[in-house]
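Request from the bench team (R.T.):
"We need a structural guess for the complex before ordering more copper (II) ion. Sequence and SMILES attached. Just send the tokens back."

Command: build protein-copper (II) ion structure.
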Amino acid sequence: MPDFVAPVGGSYLYHDPYEPPLNRILGLHGAFIVDPALGTTVAGSATPFSRAMHTPQIAAVFDAFGRHPRFPGERWKAGDPARDKLWLFSQTDSAINARVAAGYRISGQALIDAFLPDYFHINGLSGFDTAVHDTTASVDRAAAQAIEPVGKQGQPTLLRVMNAGLCTHSAHIHGNHLFECTEADASGVPYCETNVYERDVWVMRPMDRKDMILPFERPPDVPVWPPREEPFPLKYVMHCHTEMSQTAGGGNYPQGLVTHWTMTSPIYAF
Ligand SMILES: [Cu+2]
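Reply to R.T.: structure attached below.
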């Protein structure tokens, strides 16, 4: 087996460069995660990024979880799949797929010129299938659970968000703001932010990769906590603000880039 030196800890995309972007759009892509050899902050908090790439601002975010009065609860936990999620966005143009399936050759430029997606995916799933519902069949549960963040107040969760498609997405989330931790530079190397914005909507251009932290904090506008009239679990939606990803095919979400996240209990239930 050939050896190679892993790059700095972070989130990467692999894809087939043949006739770009044809094979990538047809599905030959995936996530490649590098765990840091040394990812802790100087203060000892685990992070998913190599210490050498930490900025003081990113270290401060990870050091705040479980310590700062705003974030009672736990620190981010490395190696816990419930606290480390992948959201890999992609799109399908079913007319182009049908032409390829019928044996027609399509150039990458012809694909770009004709591209009109009608299905929008997270990890290859769309709409209803991207979250767990009472009616979700047991065979479909694991894939939905891999997407949907679930935890208690005070369990910060990493979302490794990537866009392997051609459509620019505008991911929007309810309930909490996310901390935008990383982007990739022009050569694809991830770097930590020096100004960590709180986002309730963030842009995902083609081939963008952004590591986001969903803090699982008390929703900032809740007047009574824990709420008395709206019982736990609290369920919130993430949906894309790029309109065609919500209304394709005349649908209201079914083919769309959408999922849920769920806060199962307040902090005192630890
Ligand atoms: Cu909304």
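Two things stood out. The two ends are 45 Å apart (CA to CA). The chain has one domain: 10-269.
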